[in-house]
Amino acid sequence: MLTSVLMGLGLLLLFEGLGPLLAPKAWQQMLRLMSDQPPEQLRRIGGCLVVAGAVILWALGH
Q1: Residue range 27-56, pLDDT digits in tens
Q2: Which of 45, 9, 50, 10 is nearest to 30 (CA)?
């Protein structure tokens, strides 16, 4: 179980690092646009990402 968690964390870091590595200007612009969004919109986006991640994990587990 710990190995799976660490693998997931490693993949998360890998994918999160691709944006600033490959397209730093676009990444900065995206962060600026996100910071202009109201908290409710960010909460909705985060909720959608959590649900999408849970569905992917559920699908992989079955």
Answers
A1: 999 999 999 999 999 999 999 999 999 999
A2: 45
Structure-token pair, residue 26:
């676009």
Chain mean position to CA 49: 7
Residue owning tokens 């676009």: 26
Distance CA 3, CA 55 (A): 21
Residues in Cβ contact with 47 at an 8 Å cutoff, skipping those fewer than 6 apart: none
- Nearest of 8, 9, 29 to residue 19 by alpha carbon: 29
- The span from the CA of 43 to the CA of 49, in Å, is 10
Tokens of 57: 């994990």
* pTM for this model (two decimals): 0.72
Q: How many CB atoms lie within 10 A of CB 35?
A: 8
